[in-house]
Automatic annotation (TrEMBL):
Leader peptide range in chain numbering: none
Pfam families documented for this protein: Pkinase
The family this protein is said to belong to: Belongs to the protein kinase superfamily. Ser/Thr protein kinase family. Aurora subfamily.
Top-level EC class as recorded in UniProt: transferase
Catalytic reactions of this protein: L-threonyl-[protein] + ATP = O-phospho-L-threonyl-[protein] + ADP + H(+); L-seryl-[protein] + ATP = O-phospho-L-seryl-[protein] + ADP + H(+)
Protein's recorded name: Aurora kinase
UniProt cross-references to SUPFAM superfamilies, sorted A to Z: Protein kinase-like (PK-like)
GO molecular function ontology, one term from the record: ATP binding
Region (Disordered): 1-20
GO cellular component terms, A-Z: nuclear membrane; spindle pole
SMART domains reported in the protein's UniProt record: S_TKc
Length: 293
C-alpha cells in the first residue's frame, strides 16, 4: 500500500477483500453509523456495506498522523498480515482504501466492545473467565505462529469481544513475519519480555510471555511487573520479579501456569500447545472459547 505515493490522486481504492475477488472499495460503498472508539491515529465507526448490508467497523486513520509518527510501514505490515489471517479469535481485516487525507480499514465488527473496559469494570475476572480467554488467545497465537507471524503486542487494549462473548485479537500494528525479526522497541513496557526490553533477538515465544502477563492481569486486575517508574518496571521484568498478592485468592494451578510462562529464558517458556493441556486450563476454560458467566 503505497500510501505516500498516492497523495495527489483522488479517492483510490484497495484490492484484496477476501482473497478471491478483487474489490475496489470507496467511502460511497458504506453507510457510516455511530463512532465506536478513538485511537491515537483516528476513529472507528460502525458502518454498513450498502450492497450486502454487511455490518463492519470502519477505522479511519489520518495520513498526516501516520506520517508524523512514521508508522506507515507498520500499517502496511498490519494490513498485509491481518488481511491474510482467518481465525475466530482474530479480528478480520476485509480490505482497505484511502483518499487524499485518510486511510480506511474495513474491519470485522466486534459487538461487545473493548476487553480492557470490561476488565476495568469487573476489576478482575473469575478463573473460569480468565482461563477461557487465555485458551482462546493461545489457539489464535498457535495459528499465527504456524504462519510465522508473531503479534508482539498482546495486551488488554488490543483485545475486543465479539457478539457471542468470544475474544478477538485486533491491531496487528506491531506484528511481524518471524523471518525478518526486528530489534526495534515496541508496545508499552508492561507486556514486553526480557529479551525485548533488553532489545536482543526475539521469536514467537515473546507472545507466550505476553500471554502470561495478560493471564496475571485477568486474575489480579494489574500487570505483574507494574511500578511507578519505567526504570522500576524495566528492572522487575528483566529480573522476573514475579509476586502473587494475597488478594484476590487465586488457585495454585493458575499461579503454576503463569510461573511457567513468565520465564526469562525464552526457550524454557511453556509452549502454547502444552498450555492447552495445563490442568488449570483443562479444569476452567470453556472449550468453545465463549465465557457464559
Ligand atoms: C480506533 C480505535 C482503535 C485504536 C487502536 C486499536 C484498536 C483495536 C482494539 C482500535 N479499535 C478497533 O480497531 N476496533 C475495531 C473494531 C472495533 C474497534 C469494534 N467495536 C468497538 O469498538 C465497540 C466498542 C464499544 C461497543 N459497545 C457495545 C456495548 N455497550 C454496552 C458498550 C459499547 C461495541 C463495539 N469492532 N471492530
Amino acid at each position: 500500500m503505497a500510501i505516500a505515493a498516492e497523495n495527489q490522486s483522488q479517492e483510490k481504492a484497495s484490492t484484496e477483500v477476501s482473497g478471491e475477488e478483487k474489490k475496489r472499495w470507496t467511502l460511497n460503498d458504506f453507510d457510516i453509523g455511530k463512532p465506536l472508539g478513538r485511537g491515537k491515529f483516528g476513529h472507528v465507526y460502525l458502518a454498513r456495506e450498502k450492497r450486502s448490508n454487511h455490518i463492519v467497523a470502519l477505522k479511519v486513520l489520518f495520513k498526516s498522523q501516520l506520517q508524523q509518527s512514521q508508522v506507515e510501514h507498520q500499517l502496511r505490515r498490519e494490513v498485509e498480515i491481518q488481511s491474510h489471517l482467518r481465525h475466530p479469535n482474530i479480528l478480520r481485516l476485509y480490505g482497505y482504501f484511502y483518499d487524499q487525507k485518510r486511510v480506511y480499514l474495513i474491519l470485522e465488527y466486534a459487538a461487545k466492545g473493548e476487553l480492557y473496559k470490561e476488565l476495568q469494570k469487573c476489576k478482575y475476572f473469575s478463573e473460569r473467565r480468565a482461563a477461557t480467554y487465555v485458551a482462546s488467545l493461545a489457539r489464535a497465537l498457535i495459528y499465527c505462529h504456524g504462519k510465522h507471524v508473531i503479534h508482539r503486542d498482546i495486551k488488554p487494549e488490543n483485545l475486543l469481544i465479539g457478539a457471542q462473548g468470544e475474544l478477538k485479537i485486533a491491531d496487528f500494528g506491531w506484528s511481524v513475519h518471524t523471518f525478518n525479526r526486528r530489534r526495534t522497541m515496541c508496545g508499552t513496557l508492561d507486556y514486553l519480555p526480557p529479551e525485548m526490553v533488553e532489545s536482543v533477538e526475539h521469536d514467537a515465544s515473546v507472545d507466550i510471555w505476553s500471554l502470561g502477563v495478560l493471564c496475571y492481569e485477568f486474575l489480579y486486575g494489574v500487570p505483574p511487573f507494574e511500578a511507578k517508574e519505567h526504570s522500576d518496571t524495566y528492572r522487575r521484568i528483566v529480573q522476573v520479579d514475579l509476586k502473587f498478592p494475597p488478594k484476590p485468592i487465586v488457585s495454585s494451578a493458575a499461579k503454576d501456569l503463569i510461573s511457567q510462562m513468565l520465564v526469562k529464558e525464552s526457550a524454557e517458556r511453556l509452549p502454547l500447545h502444552k498450555l492447552l493441556d495445563h490442568p488449570w486450563i483443562v479444569q476452567n476454560a470453556d472449550p468453545s472459547g465463549i465465557f457464559r458467566g
